[in-house]
Amino acid sequence: MLKLQNINKSYGGISILKNIDLEIKDGEIVSILGPSGCGKTTLLNLILGLTDIDSGKIIFNEKDITNVSMEKRGFNIVFQDYALFPNLDVYKNIIYGLKNSPKISTKEEVEELINMLGLKPHLNKKIEQLSGGQKQRVALARTMVMKPKILLLDEPLSALDGVIKESIKSKIKQIAREYNLTTIIVTHDPEEALTLSDKVLIVNEGKIAQFGTPNEIVSSPKDNFIKEFILNQLEIKRNNILKLFSDEMLRYEQVI
Length: 256
Fold this sequence. Notes:
Layout: E1 2-11, E2 14-24, E3 29-33, H1 40-48, E4 55-60, E5 63-64, H2 70-73, E6 75-78, H3 90-94, H4 107-116, H5 132-144, E7 150-154, H6 162-178, E8 182-187, H7 190-196, E9 199-204, E10 207-212, H8 214-219, H9 224-255
Parallel strand pairs: 3-8, 3-9, 6-7, 7-8
Antiparallel strand pairs: 1-2, 1-4, 4-5, 9-10
Helix pairs in contact: 5-6
């Protein structure tokens, strides 16, 4: 279990996170959701160990890891831009981290992960030859071969569209379930958070606005901010979809 106890963080005298108390159970998929500038990426970086906290504690499996370095925490992150090595092929990208720690994953375990993520046909390709969805799967595989204790994902679906996005969501769920892997995702998209996660953490102005299941968030929003943020974002997405169909129908009618 991961526990955050009274976490506070400021930059240049400006408070970014305020009194964050949170418990995430083993194997849960949790999305951190909120508007730009609310502090969600800072929170992810604090959990990773990339950023120090000002006050409070981070507890993992009953051990205080507040001052433990990022390298020793055993967590791992997939960045929004994938951060793959363009000079290496897909397979070498996947096993890159094993060069210094070859015993973490066996060859059979690497192959199992490659098959799970559907990457076998692409192993000899350069990164530039891959689609966005394929790059995301390579980034997931490269992280998973290191057997992280917690998987962190920073806007993993933001550059993807339609069917590809749904495929990656399915793969993230599959990995979390099969490996009982605690997975924490930063997103600005309520639809992603509500359909991907076991729990959703909504952050507003550096504070926890609500933490609960998708059903609890939708059926019992704690305040008007949550109601308006969720509903407004979903309404924008709905209108964009309707506009897309409207534009396609107009083009069809012009053709015939």
